[in-house]
Specification:
The complex is a heterotrimer of chains A (273), B (261) and C (248). Chain A is an all-alpha fold. In chain A, 81% of the residues lie in helices and 0% in strands. The N terminus of chain B is likely disordered. The chains are: A mainly alpha (273), B mainly alpha (261), C alpha/beta (248).
């Protein structure tokens, strides 16, 4: 407990908050980018440890599969329902509902919503683990034994996250689709045959969805690990790190979603069929 | 053989009991908060302070999320609209998704992260450093003084934030629509107000955000108040609070969507 | 008067208190001493209902407190204040606001100016008035302790429980706290019950000492009784010796 006086500032003005948010974002991004680069470096040059990666994959997959699938199941039903109701206001029939639903799922919703759930479940977990280690000086102990926490702790989680996010997206997307199918039958009496229609899904959409999986899978562990590694302070430190992880990861998912969607449209933008 | 089976059955039973027990505890917390408010024990100054802090804290995040959301909605609606040559309907396409679903949902998720997690961390830290006991030692009820103001602040902030985010997302969508598809903002605007979307859609979203607010606030406060185990314990509480909030939000989205059809 | 009657408490399989019985007379400074983990803090937390006993009774001026619920305990807590071991000031409020808080919440709508003035008085009593607008994170342990005492005194309690008030303080601050406790007793007629293993405090200001050993009362008496005791356990503790009959 230090005796040096610290000036507390209990009030901030709104503009100050916005400006500060901007500065904080820049600082976080540049600092997290450093972690990202080092992770890539250790991917090539670091310790070879398939055991640790497998363990992390199990952790991530095990903890999130049920959660994400459950959520996506609900989402599937809701979307088909909402989409159907709205479409009925403008179009005579719902023949395109299944096709459009699949298109949206592949392009955007499956990767993005799954990623948001993973950012919450897994991102918070990574930050809490690494943050606890930071606060109890275990990271310092690691560094003293000439081991880089990024190599030992971040790299396995990074690889695991990229791989598992693909798996989770595919599994939960399938669950969402199946539930949407059931929903269409129940609410609009659409038979599976009219619902199941892959005609609207093309290479660009598939590529866009996969690119998002990759981007999210990379961003979430890096930002969450970064939040955990930079935890400092007293009892509040780990909680604050976990908060940062969830917020940064979620924001990153949304920003990347927009960027990749926009980029895909701008580059391959001809949608007339 | 029998052991393994009964083991799995035990696990399944306790796994399905856990959400029920949690729901029960959250309900008890809500009851305690309601009682404190009814008894006039709600500390007004703490309420104002909490409202101010949660508002300021969420503003940057809500602005960012709303703008991106608007952009995403347009990009996703674009091919559908182009397919039918119905540019006039872009406002409608982006609008209904935003108002009824994506606006309330994403705003809730972001506020759960930014404000809910923070609240859990603060309450958790106070529990762990015995500040909550210190309140009780001064014969001050922690629920009325600390918990109820924070709860109400989160619910109110989410409601206002959703309104704000909806508006901002649609503004953002209008401009992205112009940039990407050459749809004039006025066309976008008339698509919104053409009569295909009504106040009912806005209300649908707002009722959801009220429910989401309740879920996030009660989860956040509950895990904060039941923290044990020092700094790592606070981290675990935040983790749990955020996950339960997210699950609860989607669950309620599901039920509310059908209940207020 | 505070009375303990056959109080027993266990945590899991560990028996912490095993039939503790003694009285704390009004107006005196009583110390509870014993080895770490002997149950001293647990014992005093029973008095204001922060811990419930597994057996036995705790009486405060004719009211049995162990079966009261939270709401009923409020009146007990206004009469009997508790100063925690780690000061536990509210981080988000200044020292003045910390002390003013109980005054506001129980003040029957007295004007704010009057409340703040009274809070300042309390801070002056503990010689911390210069730090009224500082925040707890800016203060050292000893200073925080004194502000915590000021806050505990806000509702003019007749009894004050102190949980290791001088543990972790440097000698100068420790003596300041001792003197505060003494002034409270002499000038305010406050009954103090202090948990401590600071020998200087114990033999400096105690009117009465109760020693706990293995969950029971080993000896009750004046400081002289303790200094002159033949009991080997008491002697080991009083002399601060590493070797002796006390278990590790």
């Amino acid at each position: 407990m230090s005796e040096a006086p610290v000036v507390s500032e209990p009030r901030r003005r709104v503009l100050g908050a916005l400006g500060e948010a901007g500065l904080e974002t820049t600082r976080t991004v540049s600092s997290a980018y450093g972690v990202f680069v080092r992770t890539l470096y250790y991917l090539v040059r670091g310790r070879h440890e398939p055991g640790a990666i497998a363990r992390q994959m199990y952790e991530i997959g095990n903890r999130s599969l049920v959660f994400v699938s459950l959520v996506m199941g609900f989402v599937g039903v809701i979307l088909v329902y909402q989409g159907g109701i709205q479409t009925q206001r403008v179009l005579p029939d719902l023949s395109q509902l299944g096709a459009t639903f699949l298109e949206l799922l592949v392009r955007d919703l499956a990767p993005s919503l799954a990623a948001l759930m993973v950012a919450t479940r897994v991102g918070a977990g990574i930050a809490a683990e690494l943050g606890s280690m930071a606060v109890t000086e275990q990271l310092d102990a690691l560094r003293l034994s000439a081991a880089d926490p990024v190599d030992y702790l971040v790299k396995p989680r990074f690889v695991a996250s990229v791989v598992m996010l693909f798996v989770l997206t595919i599994v939960s997307g399938t669950v969402a689709y199946a539930c949407g199918l059931v929903g269409a039958q129940v609410f609009f009496e659409l038979s599976p045959r009219s619902f199941v229609d892959l005609s609207l899904v093309d290479a660009v959409y598939l590529g866009s969805g996969l690119a998002k999986c990759l981007a999210y899978g990379a961003a979430i562990p890096i930002l969450s690990a970064h939040a955990g590694l930079t935890a400092q302070g007293g009892s509040n430190a780990v909680g604050a790190a976990t908060t940062r992880a969830v917020v940064h990861s979620s924001l990153a998912v949304i920003a990347l979603d927009f960027a990749i969607s926009f980029g895909a449209h701008a580059l391959f933008g001809d949608f007339s069929r | 053989m029998l052991d393994a089976e009964s083991g799995a059955l035990e696990q399944a039973r306790s796994a399905s009991e856990a959400p029920l027990r949690l729901a029960g505890r959250l309900a008890l917390l809500l009851a305690a908060i309601a009682r404190a408010v009814a008894d006039g024990e709600l500390d007004r100054r703490m309420l104002v302070k909490s409202l101010y802090e949660t508002g300021v804290r969420s503003l940057p995040i809500v602005v960012l999320t709303a703008l991106f959301t608007g952009g995403i909605m347009v990009v996703q609606a674009a091919p559908i609209v182009e397919r039918y040559g119905a540019h006039g309907l872009l406002g409608w396409g982006a609008g209904f998704g935003t108002l009824r679903e994506i606006g309330p949902l994403l705003t809730a998720l972001m506020i759960s992260g930014r404000v809910g997690a923070n609240n859990t961390a603060e309450l958790g830290t106070m529990v762990v450093t015995e500040q909550l006991d210190a309140l009780r030692a001064l014969a001050i009820d922690p629920v009325g003084f600390l918990v109820a103001p924070r709860f109400l602040a989160i619910v109110t902030t989410l409601l206002l934030a959703t309104l704000f985010a909806d508006a901002l997302a649609l503004v953002g969508a209008a401009y992205v629509g112009a940039a990407l598809l050459g749809v004039d903002p006025t066309v976008f605007y008339s698509g919104l107000t053409s009569g295909l979307l009504g106040f009912g859609d806005v209300a649908h979203g707002l009722v959801k955000s009220l429910v989401f607010g309740g879920v996030i606030a009660s989860s956040s406060c509950h895990y904060g108040l039941t923290t044990t185990g020092g700094a790592p314990g606070v981290g675990r509480s935040v983790n749990a609070a955020v996950v339960v909030s997210a699950a609860g939000v989607f669950l309620c989205d599901f039920f509310v969507s059908f209940l207020i059809a | 008067m505070i009375s303990f009657r056959e109080v027993s408490k266990r945590f899991g399989s560990k028996v912490v208190l095993d039939g503790v019985t003694f009285d704390v007379p009004r107006g005196e400074i009583s110390f509870i001493i014993g080895a770490s983990g002997a149950g001293k803090s647990v014992l005093i937390k029973h008095v204001t209902g922060f811990v419930r006993p597994d057996g036995g009774e705790i009486w405060l001026d004719g009211v049995e407190v162990s079966r009261l619920d939270e709401r009923a305990l409020a009146s007990v807590r206004k009469r009997c204040a508790l100063v925690f071991q780690h000061a536990t000031l509210f981080d988000s409020q200044s020292c003045l606001e910390n002390v003013a808080l109980p005054l506001e919440k129980h003040g029957r709508s007295r004007p704010r100016g009057e409340i703040l003035a009274r809070a300042r008085d309390l801070l002056t009593r503990v010689h911390m008035e210069a730090f009224a607008d500082r925040f707890p994170s800016e203060l050292g342990e000893g200073m925080k302790k004194r502000v915590a005492i000021a806050r505990a005194l806000a509702l003019e309690p007749e009894y004050v429980l102190f949980d290791e008030p001088t543990t972790g303080l440097d000698p100068v601050n420790a003596r300041r706290v001792d003197r505060l406790i003494q002034t409270l007793s002499r000038e305010g007629g406050v009954t103090s019950l202090v948990v401590s293993h600071d020998l200087t405090s114990i033999f400096g200001i105690a009117d009465r000492i109760v020693m706990l050993y293995k969950g029971r009362v080993r000896l009750i008496g004046s400081p002289d009784d303790f200094r002159q005791s033949d009991d080997p356990v008491v002697r080991q503790f009083v002399r601060g010796e590493a070797e002796g009959p006390m278990d590790a």
